[in-house]
Amino acid sequence: MGLKLVARINPRRAKTVDNAISLAKGERKRAFRLTCSKFGRILLNKRAVVEQVFSQLKEIIRIDELPFYLKKLSHVKEHIKWLLLAYNMLLYRNKVHGENLRSIKRLVA
Is residue 80 part of a domain? Predict the structure, then answer.
């Protein structure tokens, strides 16, 4: 089985072009072998769940749209903590009522 690299090489971490090519090929081959293993598939499935949660946080809770009046980092952290608390409360409500945990869009709208 051959391996063909289709994406262009990113030479940011390499000092020379030859070093960049060898570095990128090594990382890509290692990533390819990881995704072919059982552990790699489990890891990718967990990553998909995390991406779904981040997507919900951005879309429904609007965690990426901070109010203009939040200037200090401590205020931003506090705001995000409150948003995450609200999100977790919505998940808990769905769990108590036996509904799908991720179906919270109708509760917010």
Answer: yes
